[in-house]
């Protein structure tokens, strides 16, 4: 904390982060015009998909505020763009290889898709909510729905802008920080809801206390497991052929994390569930029947959720650690893996490592995300805790990433300060008088 306070640059970045999160918090209480919020009584206590969406938006959905859709349209657009870049659309693959210039084009296309998905989701949300909660829209005309959809879409645009500001001027990954803030903002309400459900009206307190202790121990264990797995890695030795004065190359290693994809697969899987489910809700009774079969409340939906997490973990792991590129870079740097021939053999070796580690990491993410949901169906766990596994994965991953980023920034600040203090004294050499 002392080092954080000393660094002026780091203080500025943290203030930008806090300011953006403050705007997010204020926006959750700016309500969409033309609705009767009294019709939404009880929405905060709804389970299933609404519980997940409400958690990711920090409670903005239950308030039906301008941030009710949240950041999920942007995540959905990012998923589609990344999938299309995997040699599906040649132009997007070409942009991917063009460095900063191509990335700017990709980002602009992502913004356009975000507007498209946000507009659709906003319209579907307003229509479906008006059906489920009669009287929500005071004037159910076409113009009223268009206005509500426009406001909700602009709310998503504001969140994307806040994420970009955090990324460029603040500290941490902007979109992840907004999702983390939403989950943490819901934590006090979830604890209060659990207390009311478990302790209020109970004459005998022994069983509720024991139940609470077991639940706390369970989630603490999950938290420790997520921390351990996120920090776990396999170190592959790398030998350099560059000679030194002793005629030997330098030795180093390349780390391969167990969970190479980080928190992205869980966020992606949640987004992939939310978007279709929101559209299906518009079908009314038929939509409710479909969601009862494939939603989070069903075993089929839980299995689908786990499979999507595993699929995205593999996808993103190979995006992050492309074996072909790694093998090529090592060979270009005149290095090699001991006992492995450079080139194709090294690529195959790295591919096997990524595949095996990702198998363990993907199963872990799926199990941690699904166990609380299954446990809730067996022991009647409160709805607000059934998605605790997903929330813990996001919280731990984002906080650890923020901690590492702060560490790097503090080292940079200390090094810069050291250079400024020692400039002219440590490295300055006085000319020798003749």
Observed structural traits:
434 residues, mainly alpha, Preprotein translocase SecY subunit, three-stranded antiparallel beta sheet, 3 strands, globular
Concise account of the structure shown:
By secondary structure, this protein is mainly alpha-helical. It has helices spanning about 1-5, 10-25, 50-55, 60-65, 70-85, 90-95, 100-130, 140-170, 175-200, 205-230, 265-280, 285-295, 300-320, 325-330, 345-380, 385, 390-420, and strands at about 235-240, 250-255, 335. The chain has a three-stranded antiparallel sheet.
Question: How are the secondary structure elements laid out?
Answer:
Layout: H1 2-6, H2 8-27, H3 48-56, H4 60-63, H5 72-84, H6 90-96, H7 99-132, H8 142-169, H9 174-198, H10 206-231, E1 233-240, E2 251-257, H11 264-280, H12 285-294, H13 299-320, H14 323-332, E3 335-336, H15 344-379, H16 383-386, H17 388-422
Antiparallel strand pairs: 1-2, 1-3
Largest sheet: 3 strands, antiparallel
Our count of domains comes out at: 2
Query: Which CATH class of the largest domain is shown?
Result: Mainly Alpha
How does the helix and strand content classify structurally? mainly alpha
Q: Quick one: overall form? A: globular
Give, in order, the helices and strands.
Answer: HHHHHHHHHHEEHHHHEHHH
- What is the CATH homologous superfamily assignment of the largest domain? SecY subunit domain
Low-confidence stretches: 424-430
Query: Taking all residues together, what is the mean pLDDT?
Result: 81
First and last CA, distance: 52 Å
- Count of helix runs: 17
Biggest sheet strand line-up: 2-1-3
Supply Rg.
Answer: 25 Å
According to DSSP, the number of beta strands is 3
Beta-strand content estimate = under 5%
What is the name of the CATH architecture of the largest domain? Orthogonal Bundle
CATH topology of the largest domain, which one? Preprotein translocase SecY subunit
Residue share in helix: over 70%
């Amino acid at each position: 904390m002392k080092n954080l306070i000393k660094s002026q640059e780091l203080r500025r970045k943290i203030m930008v982060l806090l300011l953006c999160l403050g705007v997010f918090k204020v926006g959750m209480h700016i309500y969409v015009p033309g609705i009767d919020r009294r019709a939404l009584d009880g929405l905060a206590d709804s389970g299933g998909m609404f519980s997940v969406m409400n958690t990711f938006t920090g409670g903005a959905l239950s308030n039906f505020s301008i941030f009710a859709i949240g950041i999920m349209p942007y995540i959905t657009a990012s998923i589609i763009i990344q999938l299309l870049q995997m040699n599906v659309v040649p132009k997007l693959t070409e942009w991917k290889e063009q460095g900063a210039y191509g990335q700017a084009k990709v980002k602009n296309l992502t913004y356009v898709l975000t507007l498209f998905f946000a507009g659709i989701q906003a319209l579907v949300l307003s229509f479906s909510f008006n059906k489920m909660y009669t009287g929500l829209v005071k004037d159910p005309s076409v113009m009223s729905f268009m206005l509500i959809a426009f406001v909700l879409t602009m709310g998503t645009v504001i969140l994307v802008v806040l994420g970009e500001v955090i990324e460029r001027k603040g500290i941490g990954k902007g979109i992840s920080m907004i999702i983390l803030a939403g989950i943490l903002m819901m934590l006090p309400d979830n604890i209060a809801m659990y207390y009311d459900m478990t302790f209020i009206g109970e004459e005998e307190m022994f069983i509720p206390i024991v139940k609470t202790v077991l639940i706390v121990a369970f989630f603490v264990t999950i938290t420790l497991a997520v921390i351990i797995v996120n920090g776990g890695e396999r170190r592959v030795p790398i030998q350099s052929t560059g000679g030194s004065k002793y005629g030997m190359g330098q030795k180093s290693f390349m780390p391969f994390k167990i969970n190479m994809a980080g928190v992205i697969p869980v966020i992606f899987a949640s987004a992939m569930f939310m978007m279709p489910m929101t559209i299906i809700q518009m079908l009314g009774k038929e939509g409710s029947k479909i969601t009862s079969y494939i939603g989070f409340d069903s075993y089929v939906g839980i299995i689908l959720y786990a499979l999507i997490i595993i699929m995205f973990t593999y996808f993103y792991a190979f995006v992050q650690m492309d074996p072909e590129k790694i093998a090529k870079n090592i060979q270009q740097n005149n290095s090699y893996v001991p006992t492995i021939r450079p080139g194709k053999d090294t690529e195959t070796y790295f591919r096997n490592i990524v595949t095996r580690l990702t198998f363990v990491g993907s199963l872990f993410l799926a199990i941690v995300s699904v166990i609380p949901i299954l446990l809730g169906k067996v022991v009647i766990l409160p709805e607000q805790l059934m998605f605790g596994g997903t929330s813990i994965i996001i919280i731990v991953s984002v906080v650890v990433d923020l901690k590492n980023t702060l560490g790097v920034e503090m080292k940079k600040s200390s090094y810069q300060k050291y250079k400024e203090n020692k400039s002219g004294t440590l490295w300055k050499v006085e000319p020798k008088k003749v």
